[in-house]
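Write out the bound-state structure for flavin mononucleotide.
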Amino acid sequence: MTVTPSELPPHPKEHDDLALPVADRAFLTRLALRRSSKVIHLADPGPDKTTLEAILQIGARVPDHGKLGPWRFIVLTGTHRESLGQKLADLLESRSKDPEPAQLAAERARFLRAPLVIGVVSAPVESSKVPRWEQVLSAGAVCYNVLLTANGFGFSGCWLSEWICYDGAALALLGLASSEQLAGFIYLGTPTQPLRERARPEIGPRVTFWQP
Ligand SMILES: Cc1cc2nc3c(=O)[nH]c(=O)nc-3n(C[C@H](O)[C@H](O)[C@H](O)COP(=O)(O)O)c2cc1C
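---
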């Protein structure tokens, strides 16, 4: 089955009445069995332009204290994926006396691993009411919601930070301001392999019911 954005409800306006949640077995089943793909198992086709727009629009419908929208997207598509990879390879080469050719080649191909890559930037704003931490959490929610929305359109994906998220020069290449952080890259595409369950943290020891 394919779902096109035109089949979905239009973007509501502020103060429009919205449907209340109803029990939804398909929705819960999807969440109960949700799994990321390995990046090496993501292939063409990726989301088209209209689907990408919907993934971003729906993906950004996250809890956001103060309606600050403290996040933004950097979309990598087509040949620009390789151009950025080349810049990262150049950066690594400039830092090393004897760079490994294989490492430089891997860097050039980094964003070619999936047809579509979305960088999610945490972009907190000055606020006397909303702590920075809450704004950062909202960016994390965007990452997850983008993944889920892509799943809804039949794409698979994974959320990776790798070294780039923690390298000032790499972040500058992407155009991040010093006040911003890269929450990660959401790699999206069509899975070439079945998904296999991974070990999950046990919930029991992580839950307490507070009592006085
Ligand atoms: C912020 C963040 C960064 C991540 N970065 C990486 C990474 O660089 N490399 C990696 O193998 N997995 C990384 N992961 C883990 C994968 O995205 C994924 O969660 C994991 O493979 C399990 O997938 P699933 O539980 O969604 O199926 C990261 C997860 C988060 C939340």
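---
The chain has a mean pLDDT of 97.
The chain is about 35% helix and 15% strand.
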